[in-house]
Amino acid sequence: QTASIHVFPSHRQNEINRHIYSGFTEHMGRCIEGGIYDPNNPNKDLLTPKSLRKDVISTLKPLDIPIFRYPGGNFTATYHWQDGVGPHSQRPTRLNLAWGGQPETNQFGTNEFMGWCRDHMNAEPYLCLNMGTGTLDEALSWIEYCNATGNSYYAKLRREHTGHDRPHNVKYWGLGNEVWGPWQIAQTKDPKSYAETALQWAKAIKLLDPSVKLILCGSDGMQPWDYEVIEATILPATTSDLGVTQGPLIDYVSIHGYTASSNHHKNVFAPLSAEHAILTTTALIDLACASNAIPPGQPRPTIAFDEWNVWDPKRAVGSQGAEEKYTLSDALAVAVWLNVFVRQSDKVGMACLAQSVNVISPLMTTETGVIRQTSWFVYELFCRFVRGHKVDVVVNCECYQGDTSPAWLRDSVKGREMRWLDVCASVDGEGWCVVCVVNAHEGEDIVTAVGGVDGGTEVEVYEVNGESVDVTNMDGEEKVGICEKRWVVQGEYVFPAHSFTMLRFRVSERK
Ligand code: AHR
Q1: Residue 171, SS3?
Q2: Opening angle at CA 382, ends 379 and 388, nearest 5
């Protein structure tokens, strides 16, 4: 088959918010303990004086990941932040009820996370509040502990614990995690009751610190839950009888999504459902703004897709907390996920890859080092090169004609054309135009006319591919990595079967 891709580098659209490359670290399996923090590792050379893994830091750091979410996930629903601060010898060991009742020593808590996230990763922290067994009082005291600058009780306690005056200035706070889920401890079944509580919490939190940004707990973006909580919480700014004005209480609406299939084509196309989730949630936000008469000019919430990845919980069962072994097929699915976030980057203010180390992660630790899984290389390329503005691109190629039964395909994707080439493109301020192309076809190379850039232009090519869609990097060999090449634009480019290709054109001089 032949195809064409036409890029329009001079037609800049919205700016791509780098927050779409954010991460997530949860007290689950070996993500925190054994991943980020490894006090029991006998090889002390691998560790900082605070027992943080140096190899994890040096591998993640060049990606310049903007935000890390913490401490969960499901773990959040029973987390009491005060267990994880203060003298280490006095911290209680609790049972992690979200993840099999494993002991949680609380040796790594708020201040340790801040040290890792801010000082080592140069990233912003995003903390998720306990709306399961936790109280508003507890949430307020955590925010005061992190952000207050005066002489209030928790600000002083923080200074006592950290030994310095600097607040943590945590900007992003989640109003619970998947509170609707039956797996959740202290599940909230009724969206109206969650919305009411979330508004009361938001009102109090923004009185304490009006600068924070609050993330509402949505579902997969397409459920009655999403409709109800969005409709009930996106409200006009108010001024109370006492003259206190409060701006919008909700700044982001969260969506979570995980995809997987043992069938390669289904696996790679499944993330397209996220595109529909983003469009649906955006429409729900618009609807709430209209029906609740949000005045023009009042900032509207955007989307925080704060958990996404390829994950089949059944496949990863038995490992210590979802240690997925990613195949080349999974890496291509991750590339489609990232293409979706770039294509919809005018609507997505944040997206967090779940998770950043060991647990459903592209990066694994062993006792002696790290393994970069297949999907690592795709994530790395996006973080390094896809930035600036999204640009228009028109793709013409054949489409997947296989099974589209709802058993694997969300209704949202059913009926949509799934082109063998899944594409996004960007232009950055340094004059680089980047075109990201997934050839999802398991067996066919696709000969493609690439237009919109001058013939003769020399292009940097980064390809992620492997012998077959099933190969992994987890058996002692890096079978999938980045292959760098050059191509001079002339006629057609052949996108190999089951590959991810990034073409990097220089389109103008640095501005
Ligand atoms: O990321 C793993 C888990 O998936 C999170 O704890 C939870 O929020 C989701 O169900």
Answers
A1: coil
A2: 155
Tokens standing for 461?
């090519």
Q: What is the three-class DSSP state of 33? A: strand
List domains and CATH numbers for the chain.
8-392 (3.20.20.80), 393-506 (2.60.40.1180)
- Cβ neighbors of 150 (< 8 A, separation 6 or more) are none
Q: How far is the CA of 27 from the centre of ligand 1 (A)?
A: 11
Question: Residue 227 is encoded by which pair of tokens?
Answer: 């409709």
Residue nearest atom 5 of ligand 1, based on CA coordinates = 73
pLDDT band per the 50, 70, 90 thresholds, residue 490:
confident
In whole angstroms, how far apart are CA 429 and each of 49, 66, 506?
A: 39, 19, 11
Cβ 73 under 6 angstroms from ligand 1 = yes
Å from CA of 180 to ligand 1 middle: 13
Cβ neighbour number for residue 124 with a 10 Å cutoff = 18
What is the rounded distance in angstroms from the CA atom of residue 335 to the CA atom of residue 312?
A: 17
Tokens of 477: 């060999």
Residue with CA closest to ligand 1 atom 4: 73
pLDDT band with cut points at 50, 70 and 90 for residue 317: low
C-beta 33 within 6 A of ligand 1 = no
Is 463 touching ligand 1 by the criterion CB < 6 Å? no
Distance CA 459, CA 262 (A): 35
| 98 pLDDT above the threshold of 80 | yes
Asked if the interface predicted TM-score (ipTM) of this complex is over 0.90, the answer is yes
Q: Output the six-digit token pair for 474.
A: 């987890």
Q: Is 352 in the pocket of ligand 1 (CB under 6 A)?
A: no
The answer to whether residue 178 is catalytic is yes
